[in-house]
Amino acid sequence: LQTLGTSTFNVIHFTSINEGCIVGNAGTIYSTSNAGNNWTLRSSGTSNSLNSVYFTSATQGWAAGNAGTILTTSNAGVTWVAQPSNTTNNLRSTFFTSNTQGFAVGSSGNILIYTSDCTPIVYSLTSLGANCVGGNGVSIGLSSSQVGINYQLYFNVDPISQCCDISHFPEDYN
């Protein structure tokens, strides 16, 4: 057992049985290359708490945290580089489908979508208060949405299949 100071950790992610990363409060990042037998403190370049870490490969990873903090690594968590987020809201979770396409979500209904140029598109999810037609759910709004674009709602990593066709209802999805 290795004690890693007095840090509060928020999430852990392993890309293999040996390679892993922990993030936590005050910008804390540790990585391991030997199945957690030893952990190495890494510099995050931020004092903001980190709430999520996700790797798309053994080397490429993303971390998200308070005050809109987004970090990326291309060397298995050895070094981290800040990325623009266009929000100051706390970010709670990240999920990337590839090294260049992903999502971050957080407080105040913020949804960030990252594309290949690493410039996020920020959407705000709002509750419109009424139930969906024929269902038990709640209507939601998505700011900055576009007519003709299909959006898929996810719960954790699972698509919600009963989602209505929302491509022609910007700002008001049922």
Structural category is mainly beta
How many DSSP-defined strands?
Answer: 15
What portion of the residues fall into strands of 2 or more residues? 35-45%
Radius of gyration: 18 Å
Helical stretch tally: 0
Q: Main β-sheet: number of strands, strand sense, barrel status?
A: 5 strands, antiparallel
The mean pLDDT is 78
Low-pLDDT residue intervals, each spanning 5 or more residues: 162-174
Largest sheet: spatial strand order: 9-10-11-12-13
Helix content: under 10%
What is the molecular shape? globular
End-to-end Cα distance, whole Å, is: 50 Å
Order of helices and strands: EEEEEEEEEEEEEEE
Q: What can you tell me about this protein's structure?
A:
The protein is mostly beta strands and 174 residues long. It has strands spanning 9-14, 20-24, 29-32, 40-42, 50-55, 61-65, 70-73, 81-83, 91-96, 102-106, 110-114, 121-131, 138-142, 154-155, 158-159.
Condensed summary:
By secondary structure, this protein is mainly beta. The chain has strands at residues 9-14, 20-24, 29-32, 40-42, 50-55, 61-65, 70-73, 81-83, 91-96, 102-106, 110-114, 121-131, 138-142, 154-155, 158-159. It is globular and about 50 Å long.
Please write out the topology.
Elements: E1 9-14, E2 20-24, E3 29-32, E4 40-42, E5 50-55, E6 61-65, E7 70-73, E8 81-83, E9 91-96, E10 102-106, E11 110-114, E12 121-131, E13 138-142, E14 154-155, E15 158-159
Antiparallel strand pairs: 1-2, 2-3, 3-4, 5-6, 6-7, 7-8, 9-10, 10-11, 11-12, 12-13, 14-15
